[in-house]
Amino acid sequence: MDHMDKQHPQILLTASEMGEADKAAVQAGVPAMELMAAAGKAVADAVLERWSRCRVLVLCGPGNNGGDGFVVAQFLLSAGWPVRLAFWGSVETLSAEAAYFYQAWQGEIEAFATDLLDQTDLVIDAMFGAGLTRSLEGKPRDMVDAIIKRKMPVCAIDVPSGVDGTTGAAFGLVAPAELTVTFFRKKPGHLLFPGRGLCGKLVVADIGIPAPVLDELNLHTWENSPELWYREYPWPRLDGHKFHRGHAVVFGGENMTGASRLTARAAMRMGAGLVTLAVPIKVWAIYATAMTCVMVTKLEQSQEAEDFEELLLDPRHNAIVVGPGAGLAGFERIRTRKIVLAALATNRPTVLDADGLSAFADDPKILFEAINGPCVMTPHEGEFARLFPDINEEHAGDKLRRARLAAKLSAAVVILKGADTVIASPDGRAIINSNAPADLATGGSGDVLAGFIVGLLAQGFEPFYAAAAAVWMHGEAACEVGAGLIAEDLPDHLPKVLTAFKKQYYTD
Ligand SMILES: NC(=O)C1=CN([C@@H]2O[C@H](COP(=O)(O)OP(=O)(O)OC[C@H]3O[C@@H](n4cnc5c(N)ncnc54)[C@H](OP(=O)(O)O)[C@@H]3O)[C@@H](O)[C@H]2O)[C@@H](O)CC1
Ligand SMILES: Nc1ncnc2c1ncn2[C@@H]1O[C@H](COP(=O)(O)OP(=O)(O)O)[C@@H](O)[C@H]1O
Ligand SMILES: [K+]
């Protein structure tokens, strides 16, 4: 936990945190004028690197995002590019820095008009950045609408105008950027959809803000990376044996028998010393013939939950997962609930996924009250809506906050899955994942994730880190497989991911 330090490049800053960092930098002696000059230069450098000389239109808004735009325009003009600049705002209300660069611009200042786009090859979007508070209207909106219709290439400063850097939500229309240049650190909105999809390639530029200013801020959001958790990773002991690596228990149901098999195999691949799949007796043969290194144990008919409880009396069974293929039809729902409650009653690290969550849709409170030990819940959006309808409604469009509030309410680590998976701890910390390819949108990949997590929990990894590490490995494994991925490929590609991870991060 100590290693998730605030100066880390993976730290993410909300708009107000970035404002505080900016203020602290100024207090530490970096002039605001220099910050703006460096920001504008960084954007101009990125443009010069990506595009060849072409006709540029810089669209400057009323705040400091516009201020950056004046600087970019001047740099590109000095580099010999044909540059036009349009300004929407009032000179009187510009900040001192923006007013300075407004004056320093050597070209003409034009008003916003969509026909400016007729003579333009590249748009620099310096309309709104961190200060955006509402949807664009009037001239800026017309401009964005025209840029979208003409499919113009755009380089956005800080964020594409209309994207909320803190949440990734879009306030109305947004022109997608090919390149977005942001400053100092990424913002959550660069990683969360729809913002992430609108940024194009993201460049983070150093503008001279000293990293130690972050120490004074109360920061609690990171982009997922092994840098956050590799130091605590439960590397296999050189003198270890299988009992040092834990014994995970997976519950398997009667109908979707593939799901928990994927989970069990994934837990083995992640390094759990032993994995037991506990399944109803009438489907035992199906499981037993399909599994090799995983042990399969029978739960007697009509007393599955009691047998499951008995199995857990053995304290060596140190991590449990319930949900994949557990069943919700008819009596199965009650049984799934009982099995979940039996798992939680042990206070041992438990992963709840899929049916293990949905079984409590009628009364999520029963579930939350039963969570008194380490627990990781892995809802996708549908499951999340069933368990946390109020949070979902009140904070629609803010995935980060929804996940954080859900973790706090349930006292579990919550992995809110999707293309921009958020991992939230009940203590308020959150990690946004960014390495998962869209190939993961395939049946069973969530079951594998649950297995990766329980595999790490069995080895004694702390739940928040286990969750973050499993999500990251899942993304890496998917990248290894590439197009055509099916869920069973993921555990089988994990050894390559673990080997590369160990090579880079292991130190004895
Ligand atoms: N380290 C740093 O922080 C650095 C920051 N830098 C740059 O500063 C940017 C942040 O600047 P900023 O705070 O001035 O906000 P910005 O986005 O330009 O706009 C605010 C103005 O827009 C207005 N407004 C808002 N929404 C509106 C709407 N829908 N329609 C119409 N108007 C709307 C709002 O008016 P109000 O809401 O008060 O009515 C206000 O006048 C940041 O993104 C980065 O590019 C760099 O210079 C380097 C150092
Ligand atoms: N477009 C996407 N890009 C990246 N990852 C995705 C995408 N869609 C889904 N995923 C990931 O795939 C997994 C799907 O899990 P889930 O919805 O539970 O599927 P299943 O129930 O079929 O196992 C999650 O880890 C999720 O984050
Ligand atoms: K912008």
Write down the CATH topology of the largest domain. UDP-N-acetylmuramoyl-L-alanine:D-glutamate ligase
CATH superfamily of the largest domain: Ribokinase
Percent of residues in helices comes to 40-55%
Round the mean pLDDT to the nearest integer and report it. 96
Which word captures the global form?
A: elongated
The main sheet comes to: 10 strands, mixed
What is the domain tally? 2
The level 1 CATH classification of the largest domain is Alpha Beta
Kindly estimate the percentage of residues that lie in beta strands according to DSSP: 5-15%
* End-to-end gap: 20 Å
Strands side by side in the biggest sheet: 8-17-16-15-14-13-12-9-10-11
Bound molecules: ligand NPW, adenosine-5'-diphosphate, potassium ion
Name given to the CATH architecture of the largest domain: 3-Layer(aba) Sandwich
Global Rg: 26 Å
- Let me know the number of strands: 17
Quickly count the helices: 19
Secondary-structure-based class equals alpha/beta
Poorly predicted segments? none
InterPro entries: Carbohydrate_kinase_pred_CS, CARKD, Nnr, Ribokinase-like, YjeF_N_dom, YjeF_N_dom_sf
Protein name: Bifunctional NAD(P)H-hydrate repair enzyme
Organism: Marinomonas alcarazii
Cofactor: Mg(2+); K(+)
